[in-house]
């Protein structure tokens, strides 16, 4: 086997560098040796069986705190089987890849390196590294304080001890250039190259962009219908009711059809077939080393009831407390606003006029601080809940952050709408918030980091006297440059942005029909800025398998339900509606009735649209049927092998009690 | 093979009679011969490969319009595999039975006839008979008007042509006696012998009784808490709110935990593991003979869009029309009631006093007639929709009937509660309806048929001079007697009864807390009367596999949601609540707020209780994991067999572009 044994020995062989590992500069020699040993060790002694090689710096410093990792083609294929990668079989169906019958898969030939995408290879390596677990080590060699116990993820401990700075997948310059050209490199309107994005960045990012595109297209009808309301300033009661009703039913249909589109995509990408249930535990998961009851494999176990206790008696009360605090802060803000207004009316000076802005600015700052602290605590709490699966961890984190962000973003709007009942102020605040948040987001999220990154690039290039912009950096510098790029923290913030936007569009749609148009405009620039961000600003993220948008589907649907309630409420308190009814009780009853009817309609629509298109469902059925048939056949084989030949005649024998019945 | 070739040849061999087939008395000889041929034909020529034998009448008449059907032990085991029966494997897990490795199942020994229960054997035979399909016949021999086409179920056509009167499974007297003793044969309170019921009557009936028992036990807390309200005639506003809130949250928890209990039962019975997806098409399903995309087997196909068209453009409008009509009839009833009241107040004679009852009686009769007509049409429509699976057919039928029955039963109560706002009348009507319907149901459903059946039994016994009650009838007479018993039409009406009862208990619980106690009393007697009905009154029904209570779960949950709305409404319009608030708008807003909070709470509770207990989920995961592993191994085997030996070294080869990257 062409395997590298130790660090000191100069690597003679070459391999495609896939992942970069960066250790702390002062890492103990023992630690390095031990880690490299574990990474290169064979699978059967608990290693990852990968290639690793120090990155040779041009500057002569042989500190070796950066390593490049690769793997043999065979190792990658075996890894693909281990992580349950799904590939297209020769009969056109999607099947879990197995090494031994690799030839049966459609695009597999022995020299087709594209059978596994680079993103998939990097994902495989990541999984292997993260699943390196301590066997009998009680500590990380050289660091007595970094305790280990059997089953503990080594990489997790290295990270928490500060020894491992980061590990990240490398970009592929050629592929990236092609992708950017198709993505945001042209001006003419076109659909996103979703498949290429998935190919390069993996499923979860592919799905995010598919969802972004889908939502943008789906907003067009709402924008078109909302346009005349803005142009002709229609203020008729019944027209608003009509618009709001259309909006609500439309958003339900859109979300339901997304599920179908999403199933189609994830079937094509092989993640729909992939069994989430056999996911390995996430790297951060810890507990006693036990045996997984489903797979029979050794892995850490943690009792569910303990997790439940932590969720219900710590996390839930904490979130509730935070929500209460957030509302309290909002009330203080409105009180300050009133006070500032009163002060200005009394004084009428330029200082008092300036002070009018005080509360808003203060509130914005406080909200931002609260958001950041909360996010940090939410992440800590979710880790502490110790979820076995990455997906379940993510879902709990998303739910926590979502509820808080929703409250922070919309509570002041709700207050204006339903307590102050000032429609003009609501429309104004809504427009301000929507436009400000969209511009701010794009600047903070993409353009600012892009400029910083560009400056950084220029510096590096100057340093190495690479004068021409077009010329490629040498490999080592390229790696160092990528290592210094910011880390993309997942699709979370992108979805959150879309979610809040969806809230602005749907929650108060009957007051501000223009929101849909603004959202479309934002999303179109978002495609460009997000593309820039993904390709130029951030380190390449590891591909993450995903078959749907997870808890976000639920979040968007919940927003739809809340939207029904708020829109009905808004229509109910509008002066036009009030002028129709002399008795306000009658009005309230009518509004409540309409709300209930809309909700029922929503549920019926959601219920009657199947989540998975028929052709994909048939394919899934087929796979499941075959897998059951295979199980039966295997059982048969086992039975035949384990049993001696039986007398066949015995089976034809009549049932015992026959004679007693039939005469 | 010990197989019977034709009718004329006297059967020499014996077999356990399992199923009885009754043809019309004047059935053509050709038809009989053809049918028997098809039933006894081997599987590979499209037959059912069963034993059949005419029932020999003692009265010498050899008309042979009744046949008894059985099967060889081997045939039954093969049939068990074909219908995907699930049995306990030697390692304690539940697995789909396969004939070839039958020895690996826990209770299987070659002479253990109890491995398959009698109910299972009968189910297997039923499925085989119903799946006898026309191959090249264009008509039923002897009946030119009874057209056949390839793929048409022969038994279905025989039934619709009136040639086949019925086919039913035989009782097992000994087993039945034991079952009745454990069930309703003793007075002392005990839990139902659910497993024995399932063993004898099959899954769907077993689940019904498990649900009945579960619901009864679950009603106890509500009954206990409701007791003091009745005893002390508490009329406090806040106490009612408390009771209603408890009731609503309790009913949510109860329904959620039922899912878990149900999963436990159906795992034990093997139906949870059983794949619903590979269900064969239901006998009534017709269409062009095509190929099932999942299994690759030949079966009738029918395009989904056609079914959708029929559902949405015929069935749905029809149901809506009927609902409108039902409401219209109710309005007429209330108008007549008013008119009768006015007439009585004017006249004050005994005739006018008697006429006061007129509208109620007329309304009850009209409702009964409407129910019957509607039920008939609903069954016709659902058949016409041509659902592929029996379960989907049942669900659509249940949904149709449910909506209509709900409207008929509760619309007058809703009218009294929310339009007339007469709480006293509501309580009175509720009590009358609840008690009357319960008594009526038990009489009509069980005692009346029981008396009729008893009389019929006595007649038969007299005819054959079986004087002593204890003495068993001869087999032939026993079969004839069972053939004359009424047919049990499935658990539909039993669930409907429970559903309406659940409605009476939960919809207006804050007005009438006593309802829960009445429901418990009814359910306790229901156990006895249903037991009597199942064991003594009806023909033994065929066992039906079921892993849950299907659409009824949804129906009960929907009732829970409606209950939240009505209870909040009732509390809102109560005079106590009104006296609290001077401004009625405020009251309505508060009520709506409480309603929304309760609904949100309901959904959170439903969401946070997992539907399947952890241990069962682990077992399911294990099965699925193994089945996937088996598929992989099978693919490997195929790959190994189909491919020549490959050079192993090739796999170790380095990736193409390595040298360009690493220097």
UniProtKB/TrEMBL annotation, chains A, B:
It is a multi-pass membrane protein. Residues 636-663 are annotated as: Disordered. One of its GO terms (cellular component) is plasma membrane. The chain crosses the membrane at residues 205-228, 240-258, 311-334, 354-374, 397-418, 430-452, 498-521, 551-575, 587-609. Residues 197-620 form the Anoctamin transmembrane domain. InterPro entries: Anoctamin, Anoctamin_TM. Residues 638-663 have a biased composition (Basic and acidic residues). GO terms for molecular function: chloride channel activity. Keywords: Membrane, Transmembrane, Transmembrane helix. It is found in: Membrane. Belongs to the anoctamin family. This is Anoctamin. It comes from Callorhinchus milii. The lineage of its organism: Eukaryota, Metazoa, Chordata, Craniata, Vertebrata.
């Amino acid at each position: 086997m062409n395997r590298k044994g130790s660090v000191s020995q100069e690597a003679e062989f070459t391999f495609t560098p896939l992942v970069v590992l960066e250790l702390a500069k002062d890492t103990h020699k023992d630690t390095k040796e031990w880690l490299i040993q574990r990474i290169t060790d064979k699978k059967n002694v608990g290693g990852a069986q990968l290639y690793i090689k120090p990155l040779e710096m041009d500057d002569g410093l042989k500190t070796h705190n950066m390593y490049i990792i690769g793997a043999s083609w065979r190792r990658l294929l075996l890894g693909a089987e281990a992580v349950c990668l799904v590939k297209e079989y020769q009969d056109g169906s999607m099947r879990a890849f197995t090494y031994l019958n690799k030839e049966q898969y459609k695009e597999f030939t022995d020299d087709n390196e594209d059978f596994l995408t680079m993103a998939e290879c990097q994902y495989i390596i990541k999984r292997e590294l993260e699943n390196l677990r301590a066997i009998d080590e009680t500590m990380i060699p050289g660091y007595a304080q970094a305790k280990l116990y059997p089953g503990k993820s080594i990489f997790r401990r290295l990270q928490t001890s500060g020894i491992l700075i980061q590990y990240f997948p490398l970009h592929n310059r050629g592929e990236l250039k092609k992708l950017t050209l198709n993505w945001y490199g042209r001006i003419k309107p076109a659909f996103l190259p979703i498949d290429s994005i998935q190919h390069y960045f993996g499923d979860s990012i592919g799905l995010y962009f598919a969802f972004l595109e889908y939502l943008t297209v789906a907003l067009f009808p709402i924008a078109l219908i909302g346009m005349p309301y803005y142009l002709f300033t229609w203020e008729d009661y019944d027209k608003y009711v009509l618009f709001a009703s259309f909006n609500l039913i439309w958003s339900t249909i859109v979300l339901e059809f997304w599920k179908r589109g999403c199933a189609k995509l994830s079937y094509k990408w092989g993640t729909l077939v992939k069994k989430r249930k056999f996911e390995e535990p996430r790297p951060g998961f810890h507990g006693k080393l036990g045996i997984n009851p489903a797979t029979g494999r050794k892995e850490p176990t943690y009792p569910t009831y303990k997790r439940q206790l932590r969720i219900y008696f710590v996390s839930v009360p904490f979130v509730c407390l935070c929500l209460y605090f957030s509302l309290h802060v909002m009330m203080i803000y409105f009180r300050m606003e009133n006070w500032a207004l009163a002060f200005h009316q009394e004084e009428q000076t330029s200082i008092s006029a300036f002070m009018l802005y005080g509360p808003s600015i203060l509130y914005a700052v406080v909200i931002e601080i609260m958001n950041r602290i909360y996010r940090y605590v939410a992440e800590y709490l979710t880790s502490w809940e110790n979820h076995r699966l990455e997906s379940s961890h993510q879902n709990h984190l998303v739910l926590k952050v979502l509820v808080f962000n929703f409250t922070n973003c919309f509570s002041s709007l709700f207050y204006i709408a339903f307590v102050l009942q000032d429609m003009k102020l609501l429309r104004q605040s809504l427009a301000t918030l929507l436009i400000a948040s969209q511009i701010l987001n794009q600047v903070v999220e993409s353009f600012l980091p892009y400029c910083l990154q560009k400056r950084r690039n220029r510096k590096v290039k100057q340093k190495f006297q690479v004068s021409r912009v077009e010329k490629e950096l040498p490999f080592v510098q390229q790696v160092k440059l990528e290592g210094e790029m910011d880390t993309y923290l997942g699709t979370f913030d992108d979805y959150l942005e879309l979610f809040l936007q969806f809230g602005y569009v749907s929650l108060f749609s009957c007051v501000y029909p223009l929101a849909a148009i603004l959202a479309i405009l934002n999303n179109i620039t978002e495609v460009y800025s997000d593309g820039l961000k993904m390709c130029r600003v951030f380190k390449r993220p590891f591909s993450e398998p995903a078959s749907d948008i997870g808890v976000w589907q639920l979040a968007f649907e919940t927003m739809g339900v809340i939207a029904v309630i708020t829109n009905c409420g808004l229509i109910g308190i509008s002066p036009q509606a009030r002028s129709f009814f002399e008795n306000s009780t009658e009005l309230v009853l009518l509004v409540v009735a309409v709300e209930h009817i809309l909700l029922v309609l929503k549920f019926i629509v959601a219920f009657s649209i199947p989540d998975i298109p028929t052709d994909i469902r048939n394919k899934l059925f087929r796979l499941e049927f075959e897998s059951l048939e295979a199980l039966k056949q295997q059982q048969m084989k086992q039975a035949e092998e384990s049993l001696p030949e039986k007398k066949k005649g015995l089976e034809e024998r009549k049932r015992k009690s026959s004679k007693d019945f039939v005469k």
